[in-house]
């Protein structure tokens, strides 16, 4: 452990250079995407706080979900992988425990959901819970979350840093009550508090006061997953939530495919031509990726949902767009790539908070596009993109899975693009390089491939 308390227990993210394949013609493929990161990690947390065991069907298996599973196991929760029918590996059975175990260390890796959702749970344990993260994630905002957790009675020793790593000194319960938070930096502060709130002694009355509230669909997702387990969150006004203390029900749940991870595949059809279908596209979803049908249509594609699949078909060209993406910051890297191939300049705004994601995504996207000869400018809360002819070069992933998949999109139409580290996609989609190759080969869904054959391919 270093003098500041940081112990780098996460495996270093290795450099895995990858020559992005060029599309040699229109794509026609069906791509089955793995389970939603956001739903998997919420359901893991809620199942751990529940009054009975739960089973998660078709969950995500990636670095972010592995970090969550490890964190909850470290707190004493029983988590087993059991054979399931999902295309991407086992189901998960969760057996809750109460009180949670302390005197342990949790490595959040790069996962925002782990650092923001698990910090409060440490308060339910008897003993110290040390939260660390991968070196590349120590910059991620935690200050307002630490303040709010202290306000509801969680004892945190952060050495005055207002950031990871820190120690939660668990006393077996958390008081709860009224608290105001500025969640401008991340909606996950709100979600983390709401998820833990039913187990607070007196529940929670949370008010957001700040310049903006990003990623509102993700907060709606939190409220919906709580409701499904019998916890009804009142919303008296925008930016205000009341959670009663009470039981969280054990439930079997099916995890939706990750619609944000579907984004680069759907966008590929618009850049290379042709059409890409994603099966299992929900009719209703709180995932921000649900906005893709509208956004991609605005940019010139045809979107059809039939038989549970969404099909995106390229139009005559890609249209430039002026878009507020505050609700769907996760989609920015993909929409940025589309905008670079559009027929007119685009502006993406309302996204200042994505400077605090895996990397400063506004700065990284602008720098990498310029590296390929393109034109883009950083705005205070967004990006302006001016389409230009591009040339090959190294696309740096900046430790960021969505930067890596964006490099792959550029490579479809620009020969000689090399992504410096495709391994970063392991954060939410370890199968990405194989899935991309199969899409380009025009293959259908991976169907019932076993986890072993996915890994071997
Ligand atoms: O709650 C969640 O599952 C998430 C919320 C969003 O975070 P921010 O509000 O920090 O953007 C999103 O970007 C992240 O990928 C997942
Ligand atoms: C911002 C993201 O991740 P996290 O859940 O770590 O915040 C993301 O996946 O785009």
Automatic annotation (TrEMBL):
Highest taxon listed in the record's lineage: Bacteria
Entry keywords, A to Z: Amino-acid biosynthesis, Aromatic amino acid biosynthesis, Cytoplasm, Transferase
Residues at which 3-phosphoshikimate binds: 37-38, 42, 186-188, 215, 330, 357
Keyword Cytoplasm tagged: yes
Pathway membership: Metabolic intermediate biosynthesis; chorismate biosynthesis; chorismate from D-erythrose 4-phosphate and phosphoenolpyruvate: step 6/7
The protein's enzyme class: transferase
GO molecular function: 3-phosphoshikimate 1-carboxyvinyltransferase activity
Active-site residues from the entry: 330
InterPro entries (UniProt xref): Enolpyruvate_Tfrase_dom (IPR001986), Enolpyruvate_Tfrase_sf (IPR036968), EPSP_synthase (IPR006264), EPSP_synthase_CS (IPR023193), RNA3'P_cycl/enolpyr_Trfase_a/b (IPR013792)
Residues holding phosphoenolpyruvate: 37, 112, 140, 188, 361, 402, 427
Catalyzed reactions per annotation: 3-phosphoshikimate + phosphoenolpyruvate = 5-O-(1-carboxyvinyl)-3-phosphoshikimate + phosphate
Family the UniProt entry places it in: Belongs to the EPSP synthase family.
Subunit note: Monomer.
Function noted in UniProt: Catalyzes the transfer of the enolpyruvyl moiety of phosphoenolpyruvate (PEP) to the 5-hydroxyl of shikimate-3-phosphate (S3P) to produce enolpyruvyl shikimate-3-phosphate and inorganic phosphate.
NCBIfam families to which the protein is assigned, alphabetical: aroA (TIGR01356)
Record-given protein name: 3-phosphoshikimate 1-carboxyvinyltransferase
Source species: Microbacterium salsuginis
GN (gene name): aroA
């Amino acid at each position: 452990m270093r003098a500041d308390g940081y112990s780098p227990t996460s495996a270093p993210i290795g450099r895995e250079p990858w020559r992005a394949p060029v599309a040699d013609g229109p794509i026609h493929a069906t791509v089955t995407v793995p389970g939603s990161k956001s739903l998997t990690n919420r359901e893991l947390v809620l199942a751990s706080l529940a009054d009975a065991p739960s089973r998660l069907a078709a969950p995500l298996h990636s670095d972010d979900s592995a970090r969550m599973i490890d964190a909850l196991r470290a707190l004493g929760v029983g988590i087993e992988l059991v054979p399931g029918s999902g295309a991407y590996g086992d189901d998960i059975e969760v057996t809750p425990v109460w009180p949670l175990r302390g005197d342990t260390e949790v490595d959040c890796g790069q996962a925002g959901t782990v650092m923001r959702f698990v910090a409060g749970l440490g308060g339910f344990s008897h003993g110290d819970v040390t939260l660390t993260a991968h070196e590349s994630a120590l910059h991620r905002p935690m200050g307002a979350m630490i303040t709010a957790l202290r306000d509801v009675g969680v004892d945190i020793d952060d050495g005055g840093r207002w950031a990871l790593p820190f120690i939660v000194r668990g006393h077996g319960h958390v008081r709860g009550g009224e608290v105001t938070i500025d969640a401008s930096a991340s909606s996950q502060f709100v979600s983390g508090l709401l998820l833990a709130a039913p187990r607070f002694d007196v529940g929670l009355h949370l008010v957001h006061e700040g310049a903006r509230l990003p990623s509102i669909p993700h907060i709606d997702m939190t409220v919906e997953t709580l409701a499904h387990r019998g916890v009804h969150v009142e919303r008296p006004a925008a930016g205000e939530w009341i959670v009663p203390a009470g039981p969280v029900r054990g439930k079997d749940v099916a995890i939706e495919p990750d619609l944000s991870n579907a984004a680069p595949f759907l966008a590929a059809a618009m850049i290379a031509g042709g059409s890409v279908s994603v099966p299992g596209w929900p009719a209703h979803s709180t995932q921000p990726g649900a906005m893709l049908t509208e956004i991609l249509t605005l940019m010139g594609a045809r979107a059809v949902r039939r038989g549970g699949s969404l099909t995106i078909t390229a139009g005559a060209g890609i249209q430039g767009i002026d878009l507020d993406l505050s609700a769907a910051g996760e989609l920015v890297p993909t929409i940025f790539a589309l905008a670079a191939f559009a027929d007119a300049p685009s502006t993406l705004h309302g996204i200042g908070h994505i400077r605090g994601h895996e990397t400063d995504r506004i700065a990284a996207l602008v720098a990498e596009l310029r590296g390929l000869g393109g034109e883009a400018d950083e705005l205070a809360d967004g990006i302006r993109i001016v389409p230009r002819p591009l040339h090959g070069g190294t696309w740096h992933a900046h430790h960021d899975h969505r930067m890596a998949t964006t490099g792959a999109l550029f490579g479809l139409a620009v020969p000689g693009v090399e992504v410096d580290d495709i391994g970063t996609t392991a954060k939410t989609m370890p199968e990405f390089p194989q899935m991309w190759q199969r899409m380009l080969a025009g293959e259908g869904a991976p169907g019932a491939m076993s986890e072993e054959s996915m890994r071997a391919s």
